[in-house]
Each structure stands twice: as structure tokens, then as C-alpha cells.
Amino acid sequence: MSELLKNIVRFVLLMFVQLFILNNIMLNGFVQPYLYMLFILLLPFQTPRWFLLILGAATGWVMDNFMHTPGLHAAACTVVAYLRPFLIGVLSPQGGFEDLHRSPSPATMGFGKFFFYAGMLVLIHHLVYFSLEILSFQDLAYLATKILVSTLVTLLLIFVYGLLFFEWKAVRR
Amino acid sequence: MRNLILFIRRYFNLLLFITIELVCLNQVFTQNPFQQTVFLQFSEEWMGNLYQRYHRIMSYFHLKEVNDSLLAENARLRNALRNNFTRPDTSQIVVRDTAQHRQYLYLPAEVVNNSIIHASNYFTIHRGRLEGVEPHMGVISPNGVAGVVVQVSNHYALVMSLLHKESRISVRLKRTGDIGYVYWDGHNSYTAILADIPRSVNLYRNDTVVTSGFSIMFPPGLPVGFVEKIAHQPASNFQIARIRLATNFSRLRYVYVIKNFDAAEQTQIESNIPKP
After folding, report:
1. Residue A17 carries which DSSP code?
2. What is the pLDDT of residues B140-164, one digit of tens each?
3. Under an 8 A CB cutoff, do B34 and A70 touch?
4. Which of B144, B162, B147, B236 is closest to B196 using CA atoms?
5. What is B104-165+255-263's CATH topology?
6. Contacts with A136 from chain B: Cβ below 8 Å
7. What digits encode the pLDDT tens for the residues A60-71?
8. Domain B168-251 has CATH 1.20.1740.10
9. Which helix (H) or strand (E) holds A41?
10. What is the pTM of this model?
11. A78 contacts in B (CB within 8 Å)?
């Protein structure tokens, strides 16, 4: 399956899961995992940065249209898409990741690095999203707890997703 | 121009990011009712703060005009000062004169409520117990007798007007010195009845009727009214007359409460009169 088709399928799948399953699971109205942004995380390494930004904004925009939250997800996803290359740059070894044609995964980055990468970006996404959504810093503890718990649940979901779809061992081509 | 293009090319991603982010945030704050409300509140508060600072600075440049207007206002208020006092009047001037014995002290007061249309009229003055007013003190207007204090609270006193069916004032004809008394018959607010003047006295129109000084309330010689119309009573040794009151009760504004330092002494000695 070509990389493009793979990403399109992943996009549709993640949107589907997010809209029809995860959005209906709100534990106590407190935990709101947003798994769909995994799409941005898993785009290929060599995606140009401007295209990343546009894809990020588009992903958020689609989500916004479904959830009736104009701009909220788009803003969060754009931040994630913008910061993604920097984080990859920090995490990449001396010569860059060996296979630039492929996308981030535990296999290409290493388990620890990948989850650090995912964790950071999910945290940023949730930070921006919930800050914009709640838009009040009166109850910082509530906001922080909500962000952290949601981030952890999203990471757990990414792990579950990984069990299903990731290649865990580097496959030589 | 070339530099600009270079700059845009160099920071293209950043600029694109900022652009997209601005579009998104614009959407967030214009299309979500909740976020819009919060944003408006926030901006209102901060812009208000900013404007306040701005005005605080700019106000220095208008100090001259402000001073002028304040000066004008000050002058206006100073002219209206009497009217603006709502506090009870506490002023009293006592001349210390050891050669003479002071018996009466006049305490100014403002009338805050007044009636003239009933059979028993009262008015209220803004000066009470704490300012030295006690029951049974006489009250005079600048022109003449006005009434007698009947009740006092801390800052107010209720005065029985001369226009009261039970008011009796001991008077004297200024010209001849004959005594009588004045009461109000409820006819109208500017006349009363002078009674108990002996028949032997020739009353004339415009004869001045003054207080006698017999009662503890009023010092002698205060004007009460002026004889208007004499009515002869054939069957009596006394004559009565309708008098025009010196005080204009419908315009009562400032009055003086009369404190009589010897009231207690006089009352005490008079209480020895054997009751019939």
C-alpha cells in the first residue's frame, strides 16, 4: 500500500473512531481523549513543513466541522503540526532517521523516543485545546488535571492503536 | 523588495503557521458563543483598564479647564450653602456677659416639614435633643411667633404650630400694655383671634400684638400679629379681635428655637400655686 493511500485510510479511520466512538466516551465529562491528532503525528518524516501545517489545519478544521467547535481543533492541530518538525529534529540521531520515506513509529524511532515524541505533542495539543475551550485560568488545578489525564488516556489509546497497526520491529526493505 | 521576498522565503513556515493560527483563533473567538463571551469580557476589562490609564494621563492636560469649572462650581455651591445643609443646625452663640443675666438663647433650625391646612397643625424642624432642643420651648420665625416644641427626637423636633386649635399664647398690646391671649380658630392660616382684651381698651386697626413674657416659652415683646378687625361683644367685659399673624406660615423656612435658662426655676416656683 502506498504511503499516500495509507495516510488517507488512517485519516478516515481515526476520524471515524474519534467521532463515533471516543466522542461518546466522556468519563465524567473530565477525560476527553483526542486520538485523531495521531494522524498528524504519523505523517511521513519528509513531509514539507508548509504541507504539514496545511494538513494539520485541515485535520482540525474537519474535526471542528463535525464537532461544531469552529477553530478550536484547527488551532490546536496547527500548533502540533508546526512543532512536530522541531521535536523530530531534537530526537533524531546524528544523521537523521535512517529511513526518511517512512513515518514515525516505535520501529523507526525507537519505543522510548516515539512515546516521548507522541506524549509531548499530545500534551501540547490538549494544552492548547483545553485552554481555548475552558478559557479560564481561575481553576488552574482543574485545567491541568484535565489536560494531564486526557493526555495519558490519549497516549494509552495510541498504544492500543500501535498494538493493532504499528510495526514494532524495524523491517529491512 | 528582494530582501522582503528573502525574508518571506526564509520564514515561510513561521508566517504560514502564524497566519493559519490567526485564522483559527479568529474563528474560535467569533464563532463560539462561549469563547466569544469570555473574550469580550476579557477585552472589555483590559481595554477599560487601558482607557482608564490613558485618561489618567490625559487628565493632566485638562487640569486648567477642570480647575476653572471647579472654581465656578465652588462659587455656585458656596452661594447655595444654606440650602445644602441637611445636618441639624448646631450653631449657637452665647455672649458671655457677667454683668447681665442671660435668660434666653436662640437656636436656629430649618423647617423640614410643615402643614397649615389641618385643624391641628404641626411642623418638624431639623434640630433635636442632641442639639439642645427640649419640649416646651418656644419657636419663632424671623417675623414672629411660630409655635411650641412638643416632642423631640435626637435630631428632629415636632413643633405645635400656632395654627393649632389648642395653642394659647399669652400676649400684650404693645401700645397700651393690656394683656390677653391669642388662639387660632382654624379659619385660615394667616389670621388668629385675640381675646380677653378689656372693653375699656380702645383697639385700633394695625395695633401690634406682642408676647407678654409671662409664659416660660417666649421672651416678652416678640410680635405675634396685628389687629385686623375688632368685634365687640355686647354681653361681655372683654372684646375680641381678629389679628393678622406676623408669621407667614405657608412660607416657614428657618426658625429659631428659644431656650429659656430660667424655665425650670419658673415652673418650679409656679407649681406652688394652690390648685383651685
Report:
1. I
2. 888 889 999 999 998 889 999 999 8
3. no
4. B236
5. Thrombin, subunit H (2.40.10)
6. 38
7. 999 988 888 888
8. no
9. helix A38-41
10. 0.50
11. 17, 20-21, 24
